[in-house]
Amino acid sequence: MTDSNKKDLLHRYLFDKFHVRGELVQITDSYSAMLENHDYPNVVKRILGELLAATSLLTATLKFEGEISVQLQGDGPLSYAVVNGNNHQQMRASAKFADDINEGSLLDLIGSGYMVITIAPKGTDRYQGVAALDKDTLAECIENYFETSEQLRTRVWLATDIGETKCTTAGMLLQVLPVEERAKEDFTHLEALTNTITDDELLHLSPEQVLIRLYHEDNPQLFEPQEVTYECGCSREKTADAILRLTKEDALSLVEERGDIEIICQFCLKQYLFDKIDVEALYNNNADTNNATVN
Ligand SMILES: [Zn+2]
Question: Distance of CA 242 to CAs 66, 249, 266, Å?
Fold first, then answer.
């Protein structure tokens, strides 16, 4: 069913006549790669897929360079799920879940909890929006977030397909363009059309076919797509910064206890090891740098 040559692409589209914008994303390889080696049960794969497609769509609404993180947390069997992305559509994912987790709705899985959307424009302060998770689907939670935080009528459609070897996730977003008198009517028209999309079509038709199938009389215009990739972005340096948040004494006593400090990246599972010599050097270099900035 899945076309193995299909790239992971995010498309943006507009209409001549309507004051509404659209996005369509389909992700197979990057989604499959970020699940690899993690032992996620299918239900966790599915939620991470929806989060991935949603984060890609959200990231495409950014008007600046920066990062976005969409995080779900609660007291249910899926206590934590997060996808981080940036304006280059580089994405990574992680989750924490109970061993006995079962299929269920978003609310069954997360329990009593909330969604935290963190937007971090490059070079300025980050801001955070917290929304209650009180809807049945992630798509509805994202719509709710846009309507309460940005007062922009927004609809989101998400679908995932968990295969034996490859997984696919896909999503669409419709949003009114701000401050347009006619946008409300336009939106209702396009929303009704888009509501006829099936999960199978959204996951497996080409973007051109999707747009023709939904809006053939309305002349949608597709823009040059952007590739979505799996990029963790972790490094030994950033991991060392995490160690430096401990006092030198605490770090050294950890090394004494265990021989090494081992830090495994929660996203890509890469292992970083710091032995006694590394830890000593870390704190000595850090002291040098601090002195240099003071002087
Ligand atoms: Zn990593």
Answer: 21, 15, 13
